[in-house]
Amino acid sequence: MTVKAQIHLWPWSVEVAKDSLDLLGGEITIPFFGSPVISLSEGASLILPSRSERFVALGPSYESLGGRYRVYETPHGVLAGPKVSTSSNTLSVLEAGLVREIAFRTEGAAERVEGKHPDGTEKLTPIARHVLAWSQFFDDLIDIIRSGDIYADGIQWPWLLDLLNELSVIREPRMALIVKIAQDLRRQLPEIVLGIRRILLRERELIPMHRVQESDIGCLRWYVRQPGRTAAEKAGTRQKLLAVVRREIFDTLENRILKEFIRLCRREAYRYLQDVVGSDPKFQSATRSILVRSFREVCRECLRDPTLEAIRKPGAGIAPNNVLLNDPRYRQVWAWYLQLLRHEEEQDRVWDWQSRMWADVVRLMAGAALELWRTEEGHRVSINGLTCRTIVDSGMRVTLEQRLGCRIESGSEPGPFLIERFKNGRMDKQAVLELVHPSLAQQHNVSRMLGRTGGHLYFVISDINGGSQRQGVIILWAVNTAASTAPCTADADYLSRSAFRAIETHRTVLGLRGTNVPKISGLVVANCCSENGLGGKAKQRAERHDAVANHLPVLIVPADPNGWESAVEELAQALIDVFGEIIG
Question: What are the residue boundaries of the structural domains of the chain, listed by start?
Answer without folding.
Answer: 1-114+353-584, 177-196+252-351, 199-249
